[in-house]
Amino acid sequence: MFWSRGKGQSPLKGCRGQTLAFVMQFNACLHTRVSTYRRTFTKQKGTDLGVLMLSTVEVCGCEEPKPRAEHWLGSSGYFSRWRIGTISCCTAAVPCRRALLLCNGMRYKLLQEGDIQVCVIRHPRTFLSKILTSKFLRRWEPHHLTLADNSLASATPTGYMENSVSYSAIEDVQLLSWENAPKYCLQLTIPGGTVLLQAANSYLRDQWFHSLQWKKKIYKYKKVLSNPSRWEVVLKEIRTLVDMALTSPLQDDSINQAPLEIVSKLLSENTNLTTQEHENIIVAIAPLLENNHPPPDLCEFFCKHCRERPRSMVVIEVFTPVVQRILKHNMDFGKCPRLRLFTQEYILALNELNAGMEVVKKFIQSMHGPTGHCPHPRVLPNLVAVCLAAIYSCYEEFINSRDNSPSLKEIRNGCQQPCDRKPTLPLRLLHPSPDLVSQEATLSEARLKSVVVASSEIHVEVEPASTAKPALTASAGDDNEPNLIDCLMVSPACSTMSIELGPQADRTLGCYVEILKLLSDYDDWRPSLASLLQPIPFPKEALAHEKFTKELKYVIQRFAEDPRQEVHSCLLSVRAGKDGWFQLYSPGGVACDDDGELFASMVHILMGSCYKTKKFLLSLAENKLGPCMLLALRGNQTMVEILCLMLEYNIIDNNDTQLQIISTLESTGVGKRMYEQLCDRQRELKELQRKGGPTRLTLPSKSTDADLARLLSSGSFGNLENLSLAFTNVTSACAEHLIKLPSLKQLNLWSTQFGDAGLRLLSEHLTMLQVLNLCETPVTDAGLLALSSMKSLCSLNMNSTKLSADTYEDLKAKLPNLKEVDVRYTEAW
């Protein structure tokens, strides 16, 4: 500092002692952390000017704001005549104070990198260094800084940031507020100097401050917890770490994940902990798990605890909210399989309690909620994924065993396993190769004697295959892979195969099959559950296990009893060429353990919905005619109706088969009555189709289905080509009468209640229809897609229907003769 004489005032005389006393007093009022004040007093010869040079590197105010230097100078009566002239020492000598950190509810995102101004002040050790660190020679450098895991580094390592600054070297991080200095500064105290960071605004400054503090503390805890010595101290440090994460103003996924990963690594490296230490650590980190998924290593630790101490209170009190959050929020177990494994072990731990499945049932109820509709859409898919994985694990060792199951590639290629393996289960394939037949013929009887193939969990007893049935052949040149039924319908060795699971696997299987039953009891979950199980996601070993298919039968029965089409339609295969639950549980299927009651229920619900079609009846006639006749012989009304429809729609071409069906129908009272009704309808049909009658017919408005039926039964309509039912009250039920008009070419259904079911029936029988008007009818894409089989259509009016653009494009591609189309007021318009 330079003290200059005021204008009109006399020079200062004999002030050396008073000046030194003031300097000492001024020095005492300021708090220094690293360096101390250096006091130098020099009096130039021939002048009365005193020069006071003060130099410091870091000055830190105390918690309460201290009086500035001007206040001290003004308080002295002698020095009140002097004014401050020029301050030429380092900027750190300018009075400064730490800004108070006020937690005002502000939240900040954790910074990983950013642009900021940097200035480094070194401790001056010589007179030259004092000059070089002066305010006039100091500069700010722009840097793009990265907050790595262990240091603060620049993307351009030059200038002040040529070397990265390790978090271990940072002694303190402070927010500074300076007088007459750049705003929004941050001070990092390092050995030998100070790093100043200047942000663009106060929010960015605070964001940098909290991010640096977080990185520094996390780095410290990683070091402290990497080499634990006393677990009491470790537990205390973990609790402090959790509290720090919960109270941090930073808002980022890594804020809670970083402590969990530190604890996870600690547990993975120290496997000799006691059970009590396990539980103490779990309780300590429980607050972080309320809103965060546990990392993979921590999931392993939780799984181990569930297996070793399933009755621990930690499982109920701590793990329950964690698993509930996983089931509600997890999007893909494929990306985090250990979360699925932890959920699986948690449910098994609940099953080990005294109440057993009652506890599991209450847990499922809590996940669904008290209302009729579950508010969490991810719960069901996640529960099903856990169930499927657990059921697969029951058969995993059997599946992976080289002694019990041929590989998928060998199944598809139609060949047996190499001869160096133990006797395998000869599968009945769709496309057996000649080598397969020869191998089966040459196998010695000794090698096919009763053997027991054992794994750690499963014992399979295989009987001799001397009575093996010939393999089912298929048309040559068909390279489709064998379907599931053909892989399961094996020779007697497999048909008499008994699978015995170990005790633990048996409990696991029973638990998770019971969960599938519970899921099928909820009406809102049943459509999604049916869709998830439609492709048959279970291994073929499970489907060959009698206990599994018997327990799963309850779920399939629930699907068959549901009147909603989106549920019971999932009983059929997901696509052509693949088998579904309908095939598995039908007579002759590997899962059928009754006399066809479930099969009859499935057929009944499918026929009552939208599968009363020629295609479905033809499939039954080709594959299940015998079971249908057997059930009809036992008085099953659904099967009697099926046989009558086969005769009515001319599904059966063979005369002997037709006579056999007629004999079956006449053998029961209900069958005889329905066959007589069929004969009456056939006589009426012949009369209706007899040549004659009008070629054009228009029904009055407000006519009903009964009116149409009464009209068509009053005479012959074999010549009827044009029928208008516009503005009537007919519904899809009238389709059964319309399909009896063989010469019909034009049909007008404008503004009727004719829907998708009737449209499907028309598309199967009236293939010669040329003009169809569906304007203002409730048909949707599901019914309109069936029109693709009407190759003779020339004019189609779909005005004001629920036609979509994709369906419209599909119809145009499949109807080559279509010339006039009206799609106004639809999505395709």
Automatic annotation (TrEMBL):
Chief localisation class: cytoplasm
Keywords: Cytoplasm, Leucine-rich repeat, Nucleus, Repeat
Compartments in which it is found: Cytoplasm; Nucleus
InterPro entries in the record: CMIP, LRR_dom_sf, PH_CMIP
Organism in which the protein naturally occurs: Bos indicus x Bos taurus (Hybrid cattle)
Top-level taxonomic group: Eukaryota
GO cellular component: cytosol; nucleoplasm
Segments forming domain C-Maf-inducing protein PH: 107-225
The keyword Isomerase appears for this protein: no
Pfam families membership: PH_21 (PF23066)
PANTHER family reported in the protein's UniProt record: C-MAF-INDUCING PROTEIN, LEUCINE-RICH REPEAT-CONTAINING PROTEIN 73
Complex formation: Interacts with FLNA.
Gene, per the UniProt record: CMIP
Name of the protein: C-Maf-inducing protein
GO biological process, any: in utero embryonic development
